[in-house]
Each structure stands twice: as C-alpha cells, then as structure tokens.
Amino acid sequence: MTPLSPVRAFQLYVLLIPTLLLNTPEAHAGKALQQLLADIQLFITAGRYEKAQMDAEVLLEQTQPGSQKRAMVLRTLTQIAMLRGDYTTTSDHILELLDNYTLPNDLRITLETSLAQAWLQQGKVDNVIDRLTPLLNNEQLSVSNPLPWMILASALVSRERYSEALPVMKTAIALNRHAPAAWHELLLSIQFQLAAYEDSIATVKTLLDLHPNRARYWRQLASLYLMLDKPDEALAIMETGASHNLLDRLPDIGQMTWLRQSNGQPAQAARHLASALEKGTMANHAQHWEQLGELWLNAKETELAIDAFAKAGEHADSGQPWQRQAELQIHRQDWPSAATSLTNAIEKGGLKDAGKAWLLLGYLHLKNDNIDLATHAFQSATDWETVQNDAQQWLTWLAQSNGQPND
C-alpha cells in the first residue's frame, strides 16, 4: 500500500477562555477592573498584544492570590499569551487557575484542554498523556467535549502507543457529530499501524463520504483492498475514481493497467493505456507504447500491437521496437511492411543482435523478389560473427541458383 500521508498530531484551536464562574459573585470584582479589562480587550482586538499584555501585567501585580480579580486578569493574560504563541506563559497561567480556584466541570475541562494544547506546542507530550488520561477516565466528570479526547489520542500516537490511542480516538469521533476529515485521518493512521485493514477501509469510506473528490482517499482505499488480496475490489475502486477524473496520474494509470491485465482483461487494460497516451496523461515514452503493444498482443489484437510498436520506435533511442514490429508483420506474412520496419530498425541502431537483423532482412528481401537488396543484407550480416556462417551460406546459394527467390 502506498504509505498514508502523515496526519498532523493535532489542530490548534485558540480557545478564548470563557469568563470564570467562581464562587465569589462577579460584582465583587469591581466595575473599575471590569472597565480596565474591557479596554485591554480593545487592544487585543486591534492586534496590539504587547500593549495589552503590559497593561494586564500591571493589573495582575495589584491583585491578591486566589482573588476573583486575579482570576479575571489571569483569564485575559492567558488569552493574550495564546494569541502571541507564548505557550509556556499560557500553561503557567492556566495551571494557576486550575490549582487555585474551584471551577465548574465544563470550565475545568476547557482549561485542561487549553493546557494540553499549550503543552503540545512545547513538545511536552508525556505531560499531556499524564494529565488527560486520568481526567478523561474519571467517570464522575463524564467528559463529553471531544477535543481533549482527540488531543490525548494525538499524544499517544506521537509516542507510538497505537493500541491505547485507538479507543480514545474512536471516542473523540463519536462525541463529535461533525468530526473534520483530519480526525478521521488520524483514526486511519492508527488503524493502519495496527494492521486493522478492514476497519481502515470503513474509515476511508467515511472520508470519501466527507470529501468524494479527494483522489488520495480513492488511492488509499484501492491500496487497502490490495493488501487484503482483493484485486477485483481494488480495480473497481480505481475505475470509479478514474470515471470522476480523479485518478489520472501516471502511477494510477499504471496500477489500473496492471490490475486489468492481472484480472485477465488485457483488452480493457490496453484501451485504458491507449486513451491515456492519446490524451497526453501519459507521456509519449517508448516504454509506454511498448507496454501498449504487449497488451494488445495479449488481447490478440495484432494490428493494434503493430501500430503501438511503430509509435514506440518513433520515441525510442534504439530500433528495437521497430524490430519487434517487423517480427509481428512477418508472423502475418506481410513481407514488404516487415522489410521496411526492419530497415528502419537497423538504420536507427542499438539493436541487441544487429547481425541477426541483417540476416532476417536479407530473407525478407528475397521474399519480396529483391535480389540486390537481399545480397547487400547478407553481405552486411557477414560482419557479425554470430550469423557469419548462415549469411555466407545464403550468399553461396544465391550465387549457385542465380537468385531464385521464394524457394
């Protein structure tokens, strides 16, 4: 199977931490502080994070640990730090909030999720696993927010703990009715690592439901069927994708050609390859035309095979394809065409056995009643040790028989 593209470990969400609902009434925090924090929010909205941070830090110095005022300022500073990409400060502020305030469960989970994201940005993967695992396994909390489940699965994957990550990621998707493709891709990578190919197929089908025009999903699905030794299903998937003009790369065409040929469908494989060459999807390389020629031969379409080898000869560096074309024409007893093809092959050069080609060309000229050209071909063949004796015998025979062709 083509290796699956790496799925990003997580998608960072900038969580604007909601107002903390603490036991102390909000009014006790003071209207003056609320107005100052509102002014700071204006700086944040304008993207003036440095100014917002400076003003908020001044306010923080004026608060007492554990106070409602400090919690409000910490919330604002956490927001600024996350927006600035300062994840160390983000995690420090969140930890102070979690450790020093009694929070509703939903808010605590939101903060724990933001903390995990900040830690992931710092590469503190083990911290994330150690913190989220007991939190999510706490039956009293019954965490229904899918995001921390996804983050924990991502962290486990980064440590190659796929067996643990699988149920966690399944839970994340089950809790998110509109889970994005990236989540399903993460699940797919886990299943693939665990060699759960049947389950992987189900996941790729879900991805195709979400994004039917993404060619890589069609390729992955076909590859999974091949891994399960189901070439018929793989071919059906490839053909479906191709019918939507999604699988038109050279490897796609090659794989479909191979699958059709393997499934005893050489004619279909040839037609598909011929269409790709005509459309320019596959480059006019000699090897592609030679492959087409062999496919047509397997389909017992000799004339089409001859045409394909003729095209191959036009693009080849050697005359080998034209020699192959001549052999097919000889089989059909088309002596004039065979002689022309073989002459072209010899003139282009690069043949595996040029002596044999000259010897055969002499015979073809005899079949075409052209004694002079036959004599020249046999004389040329005598330069090659492998056919020297045979060529000399033909020359002797011509001299003794005064050149009786077709005998």
From TrEMBL:
Database matches in InterPro entries: TPR-like_helical_dom_sf (IPR011990)
Protein name per the record: Tetratricopeptide repeat protein
Pfam families: TPR_16, TPR_19
Organism for this UniProt entry: Kistimonas scapharcae
